[in-house]
Amino acid sequence: MERPSLEFNLPDTHEEGKLYVVDSLNNLNKLNVCPAESQHSLDEEENSGGTGESMAGSNTKNQSLFFVTFILTLIVSLALVSFVIFLIFQTRNELDQISSRLLSEKKNIEELKKLNNIILKHLNQSRIKE
After folding, report:
1. What is the pTM of this model?
2. Is residue 117 part of a domain?
3. Does the record carry Calcium as a key word (predicted)?
4. CB-CB contact of 108 with 116 (8 Å)
5. Do the domain assignments include residue 41?
6. Can you list the alpha helix ranges (DSSP code H) found in the chain?
7. Are 57 and 70 in contact (CB under 8 A)?
8. What's the pLDDT score for residue 97?
9. Does any domain span residue 78?
10. Sign of CA dihedral 79, 83, 88, 92
11. For the chain, which ranges sit under pLDDT 70?
12. How far is Cα 51 from Cα 57, in angstroms, rounded to an integer?
């Protein structure tokens, strides 16, 4: 009867050894994969008993950081759009001024052409009289 009890104890010890090896491998994996700062947060989470308190605080902090970043992005975008609209209006005003100047210059050129034609006619008439 003692023999079966020994057989029972050996598998239990073997299972405990397997659990110890798996736990050691997990710890080693955490050290290799996670940076030092992340490891501290993982250790704190394990020490807190896995209640999720640190995760809830972290989640709230991440949400507020996201919200602030989102608001700042919206403000910067609004400022950029306003600046572009301002530039469009300024460009439109400048184009209107340039087109009005061109029209006035065109009128001046046409008047000068008329005057030139009148002078040429007058000169031609004076030559004919001579």
Report:
1. 0.42
2. yes
3. no
4. no
5. no
6. 2-33, 36-47, 53-129
7. no
8. 95
9. yes
10. positive
11. 1-19, 32-56, 130
12. 12
